Structures are given as structure tokens and as C-alpha cells.
Amino acid sequence: MKRALITGITGQDGSYLAEFLLQQGYEVTGMVRRASTENFERIEHLRERIRLVQGDLLDPFSLIRVLEQARPDEIYNLAAMSFVPTSWSQPTLTGEFTALGVTRLLDAMRIVCPQARFYQASSSEMYGKVREVPQSETTPFYPRSPYAVAKVYGHYITVNYRESYGLFAVSGILFNHESPRRGLEFVTRKISNGVARIRLGLASELRLGNLDACRDWGFAGDYVRAMWLMLQQPAPDDYVVATGESHSVREFCEIAFDHVGLDWRRHVISDPRFIRPAEVDHLIGNAAKARARLGWAPSVDFAGLVRMMVDADLERLRGAAGRP
Ligand code: NAP
Ligand code: G4F
After folding, report:
1. Which of 71, 107, 148, 308 could form a disulfide with 143 if both were Cys (CB 3.0 to 4.6 A apart)?
2. Ligand 2: distance of its center to the CA of 84 in Å?
């Protein structure tokens, strides 16, 4: 039985990846931070089948202990401060978690299990003010937020440790991927949750920032499969994972409101509080390498993703209110 360690297992991707690896027959250990109240909502249904150990990307000793306990064949480093706006208000902490945290984990791996395979959760945010459309593995980076700058560091330290120490370390440059488990502050889930609340009479308006921003949005369940595929290859390499389609926040609103019979123009309000100091305008990924070498392809299209998220929020809110 193969053993996997997932940092960030309580997050959106961590929960889908844990499910996927269990289906593949892995023994799964998740690293979690100590908190005064547990934050295990996304992995509640897996609790009996996974092992959770405490550790923190800020604490090198804890990472060594986690690896000694998990003895992993594969390490998936998904933990990070992942919300872009917070990276402007907490830039140093973002650098500690999202940039230096990667080095701490790679060093712990070198000490405890250098033969393990390592996945780093890199991001399309690294392309920022894009130098090329669509973006591929060879497109230069131009990060536009402290988060993206930290991710560029995480990406290159992964490449550097692969080249310096011969580690099997890969970087997956993933474009936005969403699901009903997405955090409520990200725009897709903010919209799906807002639409469901308006439909059920719990709210009347939805305040958003830049409606013209475009993203290449896919389904998180598809993207964790790509992470795993990268670690099954004969040699380590970096891959872009994306749908190859770009849509605006406005289009997301149109489909989401339309799905429940509402006109988005009557409910969406533009609010400058949600406008960012610097924006990423035209992210669209070229996943040709992942398709050719990993045999990876997305299974959920844009409209299907929007409807899946709205339906899930409607069901959740109806359940919470005890309504049919
Ligand atoms: P998420 O839902 O925000 O989850 C982040 C996870 O990191 C949580 O489990 C969080 O734990 C953990 N974490 C944060 N700081 C930590 C620390 N100091 N020590 C240990 N754990 C820590 O993010 P996600 O959407 O699943 O994304 C997973 C990874 O992929 C992240 O690195 C993100 O930056 C990257 N990424 C995401 C996307 C996307 O579209 N989703 C695209 C490209 C890259 P708590 O529950 O304790 O807060
Ligand atoms: O949903 P978002 O907050 O995601 P963002 O910034 O693209 O970051 C996510 O994807 C990255 C991959 O490219 C990950 F690396 C990162 O960890 C995270 O998962 O914002 C998407 C777009 C932005 O352009 C933003 O300006 O939506 C726009 N937007 C418009 N109104 C809004 C809002 N974003 C949020 N969060 N809230 C709004 O009200």
C-alpha cells in the first residue's frame, strides 16, 4: 500500500485529493494546524479512513516529525495562504507560509525521506500581467500580488531542489479550480452562495468587485487527478493544468442567476471595496503538455461547474433551514 502525505488537507483541494488517493488504495496522512476549534468540515466524511498529524509550515521541527510519522512515498504540498487579497494585508506572513514554507518542507524531506516524490501547488497567478496568451510552462512569470510573488519563489525552489539534489519534485501550475467546497470568499463560491441566498429570500443583493476579470475556471475534482498523475511519471517535470477557456466574472453571474430564474442585473452591485490594488486580467492556460504526457483532460465544463456550485449551495441552505 502506497503512503501519501497531504499538507493543506482541510482545504478544498486537500479534501478532493484525499478522497482520490483513498480510492487508489493509498494510506493517507494529512497535516493539520493546531486550532482552538477543529476545522475539519471538508474531510469529516473521511475522518475514519485518514490519519491526521499536527504540524505547521512555519515550524521546521514539526515538519520533520510529520514526515517521520507519515513515512510517505508521495508528498503533496497544498498548504498555503491562498487568498490573494489577504496577501496585500499580510504580505510577510504570506511569504513565510507560501514561499519559505516550501523550502522548509523540501529540507525536511531531504532529511527524512529523500526518495519520496514531491508535488508543489504552484499557481497561474504567477503569470500575472501576462507576457503571452495562452500561458504554458515556458511563459515568463510576472506576479502581481504578494501571493503570486510567494508562489514564484515556491515554484523555483522546487525546480532548484530537483536540479540541486536530484529530488523527484514537480510543480503543477494550476489555473483556478472551484467546487462546492471552495472557500466562501473566492468569487465563484461567493456568487453561488449569494445566488442561492437570494433565491431562497435570505438576501437581495450581491456585492462584487471587478466583473470584467477573466479566469480559466475548472473543477477541483479534475485537478487533483492531474496532481497525482504528475507523481506517477518516470521523470519529474512541471505541468500547466487548465481548461483552455476563459470566462469573466460577469458571465459566471449570468449563468448562475439564470440557473435559478433570476436576472443578475437586478441583484449584483459593484463595490469598490472588492477591487484589488493590481489585477490579473487575461489568464488562460495551455495544458497541451498535460494532455499529451499525462493523458489528463477536464470532465466538467464551465456552465456545468457554475450549475453544480449553485445547486450545492441551494441544497445546503435548504437543508440548514429545514426546507424542502
Ligand atoms: P485552501 O482551501 O485555502 O486550503 C489551504 C490549506 O492550507 C488549508 O488546509 C489550510 O489549513 C492550510 N494552511 C495554511 N497555512 C498553513 C500553515 N502555516 N501550516 C499548515 N497548513 C496551512 O486552498 P485550495 O484552494 O485547496 O488550494 C490548495 C493549494 O493550491 C494552495 O497552495 C493554493 O495556493 C494552490 N492553488 C490553488 C488554486 C485554486 O484555484 N484553488 C489554483 C492554483 C494553486 P487551515 O484549514 O488550518 O486554514
Ligand atoms: O476567486 P478569486 O478570489 O481567485 P484568484 O484571485 O484568481 O485566486 C485563486 O486562484 C489562483 C489561481 O490563479 C490561486 F492561486 C489562488 O490561491 C486562488 O485559489 O478572484 C478571481 C477574480 C479576481 O480577478 C477578482 O478581482 O474575481 C475577481 N472578483 C470580482 N469580484 C472578485 C470579486 N474576487 C473576490 N474574491 N471577491 C469579489 O467580490
Report:
1. 148
2. 7
